[in-house]
Amino acid sequence: MHGRFAVAFAWSGMAAALLAGCSSGEKAATDSVRADSAATAMAPAGDTAASAGGAGALTSDITAAENAWRIAVSGGDTVELGRITAPGFTMVGSTGAASTVTRATLMKQVSQGMLAADSSSVSDITVNGTADSATADLTFFWRVSRNGKAPTSETMNVTDTWVKRDGRWQLAARKAK
Q: Is residue 4 part of a domain?
């Protein structure tokens, strides 16, 4: 009797946790799971990109990280966005310093719904770097709404700078070309 009760109790606890996770920010939670799955599926078996096959593994790692970041920012997933952006993250727009966004500003815009996207993609990615730092030149597309206005389609060429900390890639900087 004690064993069956413990199993039933454990299952009910997991179900409650699952429902609690879905009840607030269901889309963001789903996107986090999707991003983690993509990163896990594309991650190399070894500890570093070099041990898992060099440039191909590094490109796979950074492509997975780019997609995780894209899904987090587009889906409003501030939990994943907080994990994937480095503490000193900055995003410099095409107009230079006047258009620089910090990590704190980005998190505020996303969490308060001031920045929302209904679609996004990454293409034409070229990755260069080592097992613990890399740059990615790519084309980033998204259909974004700012401050509640109607969404507009934007395509930009960017250079992302990635650093690996505690075994996880983090976006340190994004600069529009």
A: no
Q: What CATH code is carried by the domain that includes residue 60?
A: 3.10.450.50
Residue 120: which domain range? 26-176
Q: Decide if 11 is inside a domain.
A: no
Residue 78 resides in a domain? yes
Task: Give per-residue pLDDT as tens, 18-61.
Answer: 333 333 344 444 444 444 444 443 343 333 444 446 789 999 99
Distance CA 126, CA 139 (A): 10
**Number of alpha carbons in the 13 Å side-chain half-sphere of residue 67:** 20
- The whole-angstrom separation of Cα 52 and Cα 55 is 9
Rounded distance between C-alpha atoms, residue 91 and residue 103, angstroms: 8
The answer to whether 80 and 71 are in contact (CB under 8 A) is yes
Report if residue 10 sits inside a domain.
Answer: no
Residue keyed to tokens 């500890």 = 47
Residues 58-102 have pLDDT tens digits of: 999 999 999 999 999 999 999 999 999 999 999 998 888 888 999
